[in-house]
Amino acid sequence: MHQSEKFWNKIAEKYSRTPVSDEASYQKKLSETQAYFSPDMNVLEFGCGTGTTAVHHAPYVHHIDAIDIAENMLEIGRSRARDADIHNITFHQGTLEQFNADTASLDAVLGLNILHLLPDRHSAISEIARILKPGGIFVSSTVCLSNSYLRLIKWLAPIGKLMGLMPDVYVISEKGLVNELVQAGFSIERQWHHGSKNIGVFIIAKKVA
To answer: What are the residue boundaries of the Methyltransferase domain, all occurrences included (predicted)?
Structure first.
């Protein structure tokens, strides 16, 4: 089992009980995302965690595939879907690449609080571009630390990971992320900051037809 998988499995229960730190921004993200949804859409959320966001979005789309590396997170997600009487979410253990969706098969991909945890963000963005239909949307919420003193976490993260106290964390710049999306064939529909010190960046990007 990969070290990050062990970490997220270990903290799944605690994570599920942690309240959203910025409820107003979370509700805004939900609302803006749902404005792009329609009842016939097929959606993929990777890094879905305990499934809260997928459960919120499920009534607005045809189907959601929700994937995460941590099976303990997914079990909580399945329970939340059952409790909410939601039946159009399928939870899968694995990574975006392992899911291996067909080319141009999805209407929307969600990657929330995940891009800054990936060792190869570029490959992930390329894969998202491949599996989205022309005109499909990629919704992301990403911690961008390059202009914050918190960028020093890059020196602490390997120690924290070794001790099992934190997952992989990578320092990203907002400008760099936007450039990567544009180079992968996306246009930026929405882009705004949230969270402490405005280090969170919410983006809705559309795959150019």
So the answer is: 43-136
Q: Say whether pLDDT at 144 is over 60.
A: yes
> CA torsion angle for 205, 181, 96, 66 (degrees, to 10)?
-20
Task: Tell me the C-alpha distance between 119 and 28, whole Å.
Answer: 28
The CATH number given to whatever domain includes residue 78 is: 3.40.50.150
CA distance 207 to 209: 6
Nearest to 140 by CA among 197, 99, 96, 84: 96
Q: What is the DSSP string of 32-45?
A: HHHTT--TT-EEEE
Give pTM, 2 decimals.
0.90
Total number of domains constituting the chain: 1
**Domain limits for position 47:** 3-207
pLDDT in tens, 72-89: 999 999 999 999 999 999
